[in-house]
């Protein structure tokens, strides 16, 4: 809707306002901005589109910066954070140098079936920003992975192909096998190419084999969308993003805090006399009837996200090193005692404690009762957090109360 503003000199300025929605720590929030964009010498300072009369990306960036306080607070973000803020999904990180090729491929196949979003990158060069390799790929640069297909060549061999996109949308693309116009495309029939929607253009989009992907890329991020998130997106956009999905994630989430004043900032398991003071969450899983694995186990993803650290960056407060541990238990009514954590080995940990916004871990366990304990590395560190649990089955989560007899 157009608005007017009168200046002190008597001039009348007409401007428009735009509404954006972002997912912020478990809730969708509306951000409203006008169409005044930062420029230098008449040119946009930050994000811009190739078309001179297209401004949606710059307006989106302005709204995103407003949500976090300023443009400066967008510096140093990650693809995972942006994916979650734009979709409300839960993002997992895979170090492709440490994950088996078969595991990566199976995660891709399952993720595509469940409507997950994929991003990937190559380690940045320490000396040259966004170094372009001889094969056309760029180091320290995020690519989107948009499709996975297995094609049969004229010799009858099955070839898994991935479609990727450089968001710059230009000619800086992959130059290896199955790149635009390469000889490999002559080994499949025209109908297959038509089914894949093959168009060779300098638009940043290209194809490559899964083997070449695994050989060249070093990180992959997968943003999983739960049924609840898909329903909310459909309500806002009118597009039923869940309709084409064979399987969907079920989600539970809850807010929490580590508070020295409340005695809930116990630190990690290196502090056995205080670890049990951290918030403890009981979760119960059942075996899904539609499980693909048919092994009687549940697939679970746990994520702990610390809140407001990016907003506090300007005050010199960085993210805290955080993590979590998950324990199997035989029924649970109150918080577990210190002896339980000393004597019991976790069924899953989040890994090394690192100062990032969110830590995640995926694991498979039999149905039953489990206790999840989020913590900071050091005790007496105050912060708020969001605990989210995704599963392929029905689940229930609740914050446990202290045992009144302990």
TrEMBL record:
PROSITE patterns: CALPAIN_CAT. GO terms for molecular function: calcium-dependent cysteine-type endopeptidase activity. Residues 1-226 form the Calpain catalytic domain. Transmembrane segments: none annotated. GO terms for cellular component: cytoplasm. Keywords: Hydrolase, Protease, Thiol protease. It comes from the Eukaryota. The active site is at residues 141, 166. InterPro entries: C2_III (IPR033883), Calpain_cysteine_protease (IPR022684), Calpain_domain_III (IPR022682), Calpain_III (IPR022683), Calpain_III_sf (IPR036213), Papain-like_cys_pep_sf (IPR038765), Peptidase_C2_calpain_cat (IPR001300). The keyword Protease applies. One of its GO terms (biological process) is proteolysis. Belongs to the peptidase C2 family. This is Calpain catalytic domain-containing protein. It comes from Caenorhabditis auriculariae.
């Amino acid at each position: 809707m157009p608005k007017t503003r009168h200046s002190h000199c008597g001039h009348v300025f007409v401007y428009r306002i735009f509404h954006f929605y972002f997912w912020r720590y478990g809730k969708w929030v509306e951000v409203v901005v006008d169409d005044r964009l930062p420029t230098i010498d008449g040119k946009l300072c930050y994000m811009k589109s190739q078309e001179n009369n297209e401004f949606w990306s710059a307006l989106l960036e302005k709204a995103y910066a407003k949500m976090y306080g300023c443009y400066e607070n967008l510096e140093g973000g990650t693809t995972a954070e942006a994916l979650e803020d734009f979709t409300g999904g839960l993002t997992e990180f895979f170090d492709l140098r440490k994950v088996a090729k078969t595991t990566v491929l199976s995660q891709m196949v399952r993720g595509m079936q469940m409507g997950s979003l994929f991003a990937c990158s190559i380690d940045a060069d320490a000396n040259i920003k966004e170094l372009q390799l001889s094969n056309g790929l760029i180091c320290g640069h995020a690519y989107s992975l948009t499709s996975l297909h297995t094609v049969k060549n004229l010799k009858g061999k099955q070839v898994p192909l991935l479609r990727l996109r450089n968001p710059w949308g230009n000619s800086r693309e992959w130059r290896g096998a199955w790149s635009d116009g390469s000889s490999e495309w002559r080994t499949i029939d025209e109908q297959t190419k038509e089914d894949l929607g093959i168009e060779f253009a300098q638009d940043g989009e290209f194809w490559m084999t899964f083997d070449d992907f695994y050989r060249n890329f070093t990180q992959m991020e997968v943003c999983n969308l739960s049924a609840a998130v898909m329903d909310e997106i459909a309500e806002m956009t009118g597009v039923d993003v869940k309709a084409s999905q064979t399987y969907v994630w079920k989600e539970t989430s809850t807010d929490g805090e580590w508070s020295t004043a409340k005695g809930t900032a116990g630190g990690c398991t290196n502090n056995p006399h205080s670890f049990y003071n951290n918030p403890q969450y009981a979760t119960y899983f059942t075996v899904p009837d539609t499980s693909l694995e048919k092994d009687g186990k549940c697939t679970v993803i746990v994520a702990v996200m610390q809140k407001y650290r990016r907003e506090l960056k300007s005050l010199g407060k960085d993210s805290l090193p955080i993590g979590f541990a998950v324990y199997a238990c035989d029924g649970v009514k109150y918080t577990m005692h210190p002896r339980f954590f000393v004597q019991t080995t976790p069924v899953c940990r989040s890994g090394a404690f690192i100062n990032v916004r969110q830590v995640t871990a995926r694991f498979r366990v039999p149905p039953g009762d489990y206790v999840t304990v989020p913590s900071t590395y050091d005790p007496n560190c105050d912060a708020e957090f969001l605990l989210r649990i995704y599963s392929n089955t029905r689940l229930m989560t609740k914050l446990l109360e202290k045992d009144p007899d302990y």
